[in-house]
Amino acid sequence: MATSEKAKLVRLDPHKIKIPSVRVTSVWQEDEYESFKASLAADGMVNPIICVKEGEGYWLADGLHRLEEAKLNGEKQVEVVYREGSMIEAMTRNLYLNRLRGKTKLSEEITVVKELADTYHLSLEDIESKTGMSKEAIEQRQQISKASALVMDAVESEQIGLGTAFQLSRLSNQDSQNAILSQLLLSVPPKSTKFVQDIVDATLQLIKERKEGVPRPEEVIPVKTLKCHICDQRYEPKEVKGINVCETCLGLCKDYVKRKMKEATEQLSPEETLARKAADLAAEGEGGS
Length: 289
Description:
The chain is built from 12 helices and 7 strands. By secondary structure, it is of the alpha/beta class. The longest helix is centred in the last third of the chain and has 20 residues, at 193-212.
């Protein structure tokens, strides 16, 4: 993320620095944060806070923890390095600097990318050049931003990762996403991204087939056949045996045979069953829209 403008240094009242509502914040472990506070107490603020100046105001780009500690300690002024810019520069520089440290939450990255695209109308190329993120990473986060609230909650709580969230977001129907998610959250150990991708692929294939109305093969009835009164299939006369049976037994036999035939032809794996359920929910959603 290169910029030709030279940064400037100023001392400001920490309470006058504005914090964007949409941003990423470095994730700290408790022991890391205690070490950070001890370092501030011993050496003071070694690294200045980074801001973007818009008009007469200053937007925070990096250094939220330092800013909060300065306020708590009653400091009247803090050192600030700034460049002229706008909220866009504040957000993109915030994302860029925090990703450099490798301590960001995926859910916050998704929110920032969505805000830059939807509110500030930045193109994929603009976001790439301003944040240093790859096009693939940006596209993944844009796609995940369309996921259901339950999927986003799972991302926020870090119950699922980037790959799983991206695969679920490929399903346009949010009930389908939630159905698969509910099963994934019960899995111990957690399912792989490839496992989720396979289920989503199977679901999308089922949805496609149902929309296209995949034709069934025509039934070929051989000449001179007789229909079995139990399984309803047709056979050559020599393959049919005659027995005396009452209507009740006939009905029970038919139910039993049909159930067994269905079980034999529909031995679905748990993954196939889940994909079918997700496809059913997608069909119900389209029917109600």
